[in-house]
């Protein structure tokens, strides 16, 4: 597959992701992994021929977080490898709905991009902004119900989170109690992860005490965790929508002297969270590959702009990180970014 060959040449086996996720969306799908076959670098270079007149628009949820920094890095590397121009944007935060909406409207009305990639903050709202779009539209990280969508590139969030829930359930045992901290309430990615966590926990006999939302930020997660601890004298596990919130929840529990009695599950597998796992604070994380998401988004947007066939669902694999593999995984993350 051409996309795999390009990605394999880029990554060279830097990241190895072993847990295949299943797509919950309709239509054909393919799994994109960094563990692809070895390919000559010249194949990547040849893929960039005759692409200099192609401009790809990419609008992410934000550029102000470690996770989205990885996505942006993948976007920029694909821009370089494929010889295209990328207009990369993102609002200040994951609750900057109006700012992202304005970016989408401005990009579409300008008509300067040959394809547009969006990570929608509010999928339903974003779809209403696409009615006048004439260029191919692709979604990355978070899907949207857009009838002219070319492709979705991202994680099967529900399946991946279920694996995380099962892992924590086995650690703490049947009959124990857990709380969930979601990101932005109503966000499709967040709700898929919360559903997956629930399924993994409840199927293994863990009681879910409650769920609260922290707008995907560590500071808000600290407040949410403090509320949980005031309400529930026994909390055995905390499962969060992302790693920032997991680290915030752990910090709150540590300040209250209760962290050593809890397990903390994050999602994303960012370098700071992997270091937290090594340090014995965060317990585990479902690691996505945001770099690959960004790279694959541009690769497939270029294919769409050229009128080539694009798979409807491109699922990026995930990997569960805990103390047994955190050091190795962190080394690979650092190598990927040239550290």
Strand segment count: 13
Q: Biggest sheet: strands side by side, in what order?
A: 1-12-6-5-4-2-3
Mean pLDDT: 88
Beta-strand fraction estimate: 15-25%
Morphology: elongated
Instruction: Determine the structural class based on helices, strands and strand pairing.
Output: alpha/beta
Helix content: 40-55%
User: Quick one: biggest sheet?
Assistant: 7 strands, parallel
Secondary structure topology:
Elements: H1 2-11, E1 29-32, H2 41-47, E2 55-59, H3 66-82, E3 85-89, H4 97-110, E4 115-118, H5 123-128, E5 137-140, E6 149-154, H6 157-172, E7 177-182, H7 188-202, E8 207-213, H8 218-231, E9 237-240, H9 243-255, E10 263-268, H10 271-278, E11 284-287, H11 290-305, E12 313-316, E13 319-321, H12 326-336
GO molecular function, one term: carbohydrate binding
GO cellular component, one term: cell envelope
InterPro entries: Peripla_BP_I (IPR028082), SBP_2_dom (IPR025997)
Describe the structure in your own words:
- Its main location: other.
- Keywords: Signal.
- It comes from Caproiciproducens galactitolivorans.
- One of its GO terms (molecular function) is carbohydrate binding.
- The structure is a single chain.
- This protein is an alpha/beta fold and 339 residues long.
- The protein folds into 2 domains: 2-155 and 288-318, 3-Layer(aba) Sandwich (Rossmann fold), CATH 3.40.50.2300; 157-287, 3-Layer(aba) Sandwich (Rossmann fold), CATH 3.40.50.
- The protein is built from 12 helices and 13 strands.
- The chain has a 7-stranded parallel sheet with strand order 1-12-6-5-4-2-3, with helices on both faces.
- Residues 1-28 and 33-46 have low confidence and may be disordered.
